[in-house]
Amino acid sequence: MGFIDSDAHVDETEQTWEYMNESEVRYKPITVDPDGKGFLARERRPHRLWLIGGNVSLRRFRDDNVTGTTQATRELIDVESRLRHMDHRPER
What we know:
18% of the residues lie in helices and 14% in strands. The protein is α+β, with helices and mostly antiparallel strands. It has one domain. The protein has a three-stranded antiparallel β-sheet, with no helix packed on it.
């Protein structure tokens, strides 16, 4: 059974920032890909990073089997499905 965290996180993608005006582009996050080298010792796969205003933040890979999401729901490509997933209450 999947879950959505308390603030219903979505995974931002490069397309998330396409709405920005030309005057705001300097604030646009840039994806940094470690090219298979990885940065976390306990992880087998590399993690991408966001470069935002000179600061680096981890950009995690998601496991849809663990979260119960799909690319369309976690990236808000399919908003209706995401809302249904958020409304779902697992049986206890």
